[in-house]
Design a protein that fits this description.
The chain has about 150 residues and is an alpha+beta fold. It has helices at about 30-40, 45-50, 95-105, 115-120, 125-140, 140-145; strands at about 5-10, 15, 65-70, 70-75, 80-85, 110-115. It has a single domain, classed as Endonuclease, Chain A (3-Layer(aba) Sandwich). Helix content is about 40%, strand content about 25%. Strands 3-4-5-6 form a 4-stranded mixed beta sheet, sandwiched between helices.
Amino acid sequence: MENNGEITAYINTQPIYRNYIENLPYNIKLKARSRALRKAGVLSEVIFWLQVHKGMFWKIDFDRQRIIGNFIVDFYVKTLGLVVEIEGSSHDNKEAYDQKREDYLVSLGLKVYSISDLRVKHDLNNVMMELEKYIIVEFGNKATTI
């Protein structure tokens, strides 16, 4: 994973460095399920999507319901190798499964950032500011991404 210090975006003049993970595994059998999840439109995911789609969040490109291996993640930023998960009631009593998924994603070199469903619905401004800060900390220092 050599990204040569390429800047992919700026957040408040802070350069954000590329952390593209090549050749992620992809289970084609999940394609129909991924599409169905996008169309279903869980409210908190739709609210978050309206903040980040079409480069609206610092010109960073987010994908929805992306397949990675045998998992479908809520949001994925390809240029950063960043998974964003909205944790709602569908995650209740699935702590072991969620941990297994997160461990797998991290083993691929990805970063995983989780946000609670309730916070997206009731504290969106702070959620977005915290995501900005997270990205600056994780991807704003060239030394951490090369």
